[in-house]
Amino acid sequence: MAQKKLHPSVAKFKEFVKNNPKMIQEVRKGKTTWQELYEDWYLLGEEDARWEKIGNENNDLSEKPEEQETNTEKKGDLISNIMGMVNKMDPNQIQNHINNLSQAIGAIQGVLSQFQGSNGAKPPGKPPEGPINPFTFRKD
Predict the structure, then answer these.
(1) Contact in structure between 112 and 102 (CB atoms under 8 Å)
(2) Is there a contact between 27 and 37 (Cβ–Cβ < 8 Å)?
(3) Residues 25, 58: contact at Cβ < 8 Å?
(4) What is the secondary structure of 46-115 as a DSSP string?
(5) Could you state, in order of their start, the residue ranges of all structural domains in the chain?
(6) Contact predicate 17/28, CB 8 Å
(7) Terminal CA-to-CA distance of the chain, rounded, Å?
(8) Which residue intervals make up region (Disordered) (predicted)?
(9) What is the pLDDT confidence band of residue 112, given thresholds at 50, 70 and 90?
(10) What mean pLDDT is predicted for residues 81-92?
């Protein structure tokens, strides 16, 4: 395959990237794109402070423990929030909610048992469906 000849500015940018391998990591991490880096390099030049910033951000090993600390702080905050909510709960109110939930589940079970059918048997506790003759009048 014949290799295309690159524009001189693109060739210079490739050399610049080879001298600054941290830029490759920036693109791989998704923090930026090659197009953005090229445009910045073309407009700002090789001596801009942006390029030093990229190298310093990735070279600092102290950032990783800080990130871990923030993650543990977030987990700690979550646990403390949950514990705070548990401490604020009223046991009587919780019992009331549990009773309401139990009644709702009982009602759902009753509806399901009606739809499943009990082979013609009436569910226990239901009164008979009324008199056979709905027009019962007394004679004088």
Answers:
(1) no
(2) yes
(3) yes
(4) TT-HHHHHHHHHHH-TTHHHHHHHHHHHHHHHHHHHHHHHHHH--HHHHHHHHHHHHHHHHHHHHHHHHH
(5) 1-58
(6) no
(7) 116
(8) 54-75, 115-140
(9) very high
(10) 79
